[in-house]
């Protein structure tokens, strides 16, 4: 309790607690996936003091602690999958912060109009709520070696909404030795739809757990405004045949110059050959890819056995060209037999020191070097910018889409769907078999602007 000085010069103790002003800026409320799993969900004892202190500064009528507990309960129900947890944490954390800082009302007392206001805020958040992508939400104060007594404080660069400079613009800026141009913040349509869906799921969970009695997002009248629409932008994320030839040839040239790039060449070829996602090479908590996951059946066909999204097991058909020219090459480079043995436990990829597996980030860094070198080669050969441009924006996931686009005219739609592991055949059809688009484009392509007699 505060000590006050009276008129007689005698100190007395006030019976009133001085109310700290409520926070005015957003603050991260949840830690990493691993740290979240260590919390005591029956109390707030394990939360960082920085989080508890922040929540306690809000007026009692905002019910900040109650809202936090409800969000924490919701996230706990998704604690079995790290990527889902991280995505859902982003959206419901924004929601809780918005109710505390902008609406200044209890989260669990939200109404339809407030849900609509929140969605509009997400479409155009305050500039002070938008910042660069940061690696950590909290910064550790202490010695180099972590200890249980270390103090964690807010990373001042963290914001609820993150914005990155478009990769192509960043590359152009580097080439032209100028600052990158920052676009106005804009959410992708898919992100808008996900915010709406996750917040609706949160309130359904809150109802089921007895935290509240109604779902304000279900009551939103113009739901279609926030539902995902197919924007047909898939063709902007593929390389042309020319660009892909330069990428693969660049990886091969690098490997020929320095054997440390043999691994990079194998990764590029493997992703392209089987339409892989990065998780198909990195693995999951319950599965790490090995050479034994590449298996030959009794008919002589090769298959790559994976554990994909939602821990769903599947197998992908493997083309002979890949086996003969890239798989064998990689294995021989490692001193292995040309082809994998039955249930072979050798890691599919490993660090240069031999440790099994690579991180998602490590694989992306390896591929980015190939994209950058391929871009430099095309520029050195004076290819026009229209042929070079997409390489500035290319990423690992582009290889999956590029390969599927190239193969679609030569494969049965159902076969391609299974290898891509799409749940719906219509997804494969809409993305890779756009014959209607081609017919529509052809019907107008040669029509003149003038002299239509």
UniProtKB/TrEMBL annotation:
One of its GO terms (biological process) is DNA recombination. PROSITE patterns: TYR_RECOMBINASE. Keywords: DNA integration, DNA recombination, DNA-binding. Residues 234-446 form the Tyr recombinase domain. GO terms for molecular function: DNA binding. GO terms for cellular component: cytoplasm. Signal peptide: none annotated. It comes from the Bacteria. SUPFAM superfamilies: DNA breaking-rejoining enzymes. The keyword DNA-binding applies. It is found in: Cytoplasm. The keyword Metal-binding does not apply. PANTHER family: PHAGE INTEGRASE-RELATED, TYROSINE RECOMBINASE XERC. This is Site-specific recombinase XerD. It comes from Pseudomonas graminis.
């Amino acid at each position: 309790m505060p000590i006050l000085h009276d008129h007689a010069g005698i100190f007395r103790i006030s019976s009133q607690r001085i109310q700290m002003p409520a926070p005015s800026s957003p603050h991260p409320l949840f830690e990493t996936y691993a740290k979240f799993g260590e919390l005591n969900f029956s109390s707030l004892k394990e939360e960082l003091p920085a989080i508890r202190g922040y929540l306690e500064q809000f007026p009692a009528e905002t019910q900040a602690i109650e809202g936090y507990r409800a969000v924490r309960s919701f996230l706990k129900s998704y604690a079995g999958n790290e990527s889902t947890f991280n995505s859902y944490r982003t959206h419901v954390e924004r929601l809780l912060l918005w109710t505390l800082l902008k609406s200044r009302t209890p989260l669990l007392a939200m109404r339809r109009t407030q849900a609509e206001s929140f969605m509009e805020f997400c479409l155009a958040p305050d500039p002070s709520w938008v910042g660069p992508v940061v690696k950590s939400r909290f910064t550790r104060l202490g010695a180099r070696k972590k200890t249980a007594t270390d103090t964690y404080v807010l990373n001042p660069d963290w914001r609820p909404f993150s914005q990155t400079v478009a990769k192509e613009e960043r590359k152009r800026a580097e080439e032209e030795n100028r600052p990158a141009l920052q676009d106005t913040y804009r959410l992708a349509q898919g992100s808008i739809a996900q915010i709406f869906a996750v917040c609706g799921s949160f309130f359904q969970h809150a109802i089921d757990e007895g935290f509240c009695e109604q779902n304000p997002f279900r009551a939103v009248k113009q739901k279609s405004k926030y539902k995902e629409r197919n924007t047909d932008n898939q063709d902007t994320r593929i390389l042309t045949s020319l660009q892909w030839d330069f990428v693969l040839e660049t990886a091969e040239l690098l490997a020929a110059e320095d054997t440390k790039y043999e691994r990079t060449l194998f990764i590029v070829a493997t992703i392209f050959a089987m339409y892989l996602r990065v998780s198909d090479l990195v693995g999951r908590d319950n599965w790490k890819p090995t050479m034994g996951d590449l298996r030959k059946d009794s008919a002589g066909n090769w298959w790559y056995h994976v554990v994909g999204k939602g821990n769903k097991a599947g197998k992908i058909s493997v083309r002979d060209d890949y086996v003969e020219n890239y798989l064998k090459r990689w294995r021989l480079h490692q001193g292995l037999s040309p082809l994998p043995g039955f249930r072979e436990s050798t890691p599919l990829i490993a660090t240069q020191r031999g440790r099994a597996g690579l991180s998602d980030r490590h694989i992306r860094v390896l591929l980015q070097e190939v994209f950058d070198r391929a871009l430099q080669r095309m520029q050195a050969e004076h290819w026009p910018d229209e042929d070079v441009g997409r390489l500035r924006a290319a990423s690992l996931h582009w290889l999956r889409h590029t390969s599927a686009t190239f193969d679609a005219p030569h494969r049965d739609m159902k076969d391609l769907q299974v290898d891509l592991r799409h749940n719906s055949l219509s997804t494969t059809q809409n993305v890779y078999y756009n014959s209607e688009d081609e017919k529509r484009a052809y019907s107008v392509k040669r029509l003149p602007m003038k002299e239509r007699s």
